[in-house]
Protein 1
Amino acid sequence: MNILISVVICTHNRSQYLAKAIQSLLNQQFPLENYEIIIIDNCSTDQTKEVVEQLAGKNLRYIYEPTLGLSYARNTGWKNAQGKYVAYLDDDAIACPLWLSTILEVFETVQPQPGCVGGKAEPIWEAPRPNWLSDELVTGLTVIDWSPTPQVLPDLSRQWLVGANIAFPKAVLEKLGGFIDGLDRSGKHLLSGGDVFLEKQIAQAGYSCYYHPQMAVSHHIQQSRLDKKWFIRRYFWQGVSDAVVQLIEESPSRSKRLFLAILRTINLLLVPSQITSFLYNSDDKNQFTERCFTLIKLGHIAGLLGLAHKPS
């Protein structure tokens, strides 16, 4: 077998979705002998292993990762990959039939070769989309559609690739050390941003991050996430995640963290509309969006004051 692409699915107690994700990979318009599927079982207690065993084939492998946390599972995946390229698909996502072909086309034809490539992630709504859910907040559900044409992403703070649908040359992952351990989801903790942080490292190393809309996946949006309380937690923890990234990049002293938190608090108080949006529960999508963006700032402050810890 000439393995060109290793596809990694990291999973934690999502056996009800996992079979559909794997089947979408088995249905690729791509030679079976040129790719492998690696399932990283991250401390699941459901029927995950049985689901994999039912679909077992020559190009499907199962690995149990005992340390809970998405970044640990992702790193276990690429370190065990045999392919030249490593692609990540979420356990509740479905890859389009040309997914692997598009990944290979980009890495083999775009010059200079990108450091990562990703594509469109479309929602599979498991309940009606709420009226208060704006397009700006939908990206928090791992839904993106940046452009109908392939392109290099020039500003990762405005447009980024999602970990549910992303691929790298394995050599780039080896060079940069992969994902930062501890900087991402772990059980019920909603830390996030490990994928975007790696994308920024890739850009700093001189590579491009490339978007191709034909590298498309569909992504289940569970009913439990279409709730204001989930979004409030999600965006507060986005702020905490931003604080973790700041600790990684700057390693500020305890006094500097306090100073930065005070400065951010003052800046927040100087914009009354942000405080108003936080205090009032409104179904207006613009007001709820501003409330969530205010929660990012509050989460960042809370992170600087002690809720965030630099990964060891």
Protein 2
Amino acid sequence: MRTAGASARIDAVVIGASAGGIEALSVLLPVLLPGFRAAVLVVVHLPRERPSLLADIFTQKCAVPVIEAVDKEPVMPGTIAFAPPDYHLLVDEGPQLSLSADALVNFSRPSVDVLFESAADVYGTHLMGIILTGGNSDGAAGLEAIRRVGGMAVVQQPETAQTSLMPASALQRVPDAQALPLDGIATLLRTLNPGDRP
């Protein structure tokens, strides 16, 4: 397994969260400034039967565009895209977004694993995966897939998470992931400067 893609340009950041995720994302996503060039794709476990207000909530908080993902639309650099309720969010070649109503994965749709594994196939070493607070193990296998292709793996320190099971499960599967508190992850994102490296 290669060292986390420290020297690789990061073209996409995928983020997974569950219980406590909106609060955690409210620390991370507002640090992204205009000119941030990576696409940011986010899965948050939400009730499947209700519309999501995440795009509306984070449009008010963020300096970069925020959307709800739409099937077959291109992945937009410098834009945050949230998975809609009750659909898996995937990345296809192009890269473009894809929505799927396939079976639940880890009791979840959208599933963090589904997003992370599909993004790893497309972006390889140019991908960063971030696992935040949550109450199940969704995302652990996906983060392992990102590391397997040489991407960068980041996990919220479990002891700082509102619900520690999701980040703890990810660290168990990917022990060489960078484990950071939210402010440390925010600093990492702020200094990423994706697209500015050769």
Protein 3
Amino acid sequence: MTDFNRTRAAFHLPEGVTYLDGNSLGPMPLAARDRVARMMQDEWAEELIRGWNSAGWYEQPRRVGDRVARLIGAGPGQVVMGDTLSIKVFQAVSAARALRPERRVILSDSGNFPSDLYVAEGLARAVGAELRVVEPEAVADAIGPDLAVLMITEVDYRTGRRHDMAGLTARAHEAGALTVWDLAHSAGAVDVDLLGADADFAVGCTYKYLNGGPGAPAFIWTHPRHAEAAEPILQGWMGHAAPFAFDLGYRPASGIERMRVGTPPVIAMTALDAALDVWEGVALADLRARSIELTEAFIAGVEANCPGVTLNSPRDPALRGSQVGFRHPQAYAVMQALIAEGVIGDFRAPDVLRFGFAPLYNGLDDVARAVDVLARLLRDGSWDKPEFHRKAAVT
């Protein structure tokens, strides 16, 4: 059994704060501070540019990628780190579409994170393809013979709705299409199994449930059957077969290495590497069971005690990730009042109170406090103050 008391003790959680926003930014693992300090002092300061070889900076994206692979049901040598999630979405979708050049349609859903849709829209315009967006419930029926790529975020960022990865992948394959899965709200939160689902490509960020810190690097995975054929439009120096030959023409590196683009963010990746230490000894089945326990308790508590809110997430835990949303007509102000009381979730337009439950550090005591504070604010109306209605730049 996974010891969640041990994992909770591995994080800095400010006194008096109930943190339910790890689906936006995970808290700081205690080991990250010291690991980054040592890297800066012992590697950057002393080794200077020699660190690319002596400290293993050049191989870091693959080494850390192997650690992420275990958490998403991928194998060794199949995941590489670097760049941002938007760049990795662009690479994955462009590579998948190029493997189906006779087809024009990229299919996604309206619950997808908007930036994924922005990337796909720009790519479609550039290559003469079509981005088709349907309601989440309509995805399966929209898969047809003209489909090149199914681009889906597994867990909806607002509702927590979880798509059936294996089922939709099988349906796409039956139609001759390929799949790209965004795991931004899945990795570290649910029991992902990319190889088991027979997916084609996957991408994700590491600053949410993987706790890599603000701006932590993204990851990309390619199924081994595509590893030597995938050719993304965005071709970078680090993805060249021989970067230090300085050839003027591009030759893709072997396998997942060709998905590297720019110089890896070594300091940020060092923090992520430390964060991944927390996952040693964590079983994904235990993680999923704990997530369901927390979210079920929260839904029951809110619905029993908090007037004026409506569940915005699937009621069936099998159809839900590790987050819960409730709707309220003044959700922004209510959330600001919660945050002022030390219960940190977040707001998603137009009217969603969003709460993320990270089993590594959240427990039933966090659920109880969040329910109690939310119930009090809604009953006494203390959320309705001018300062709670003023919108900040980041919501």
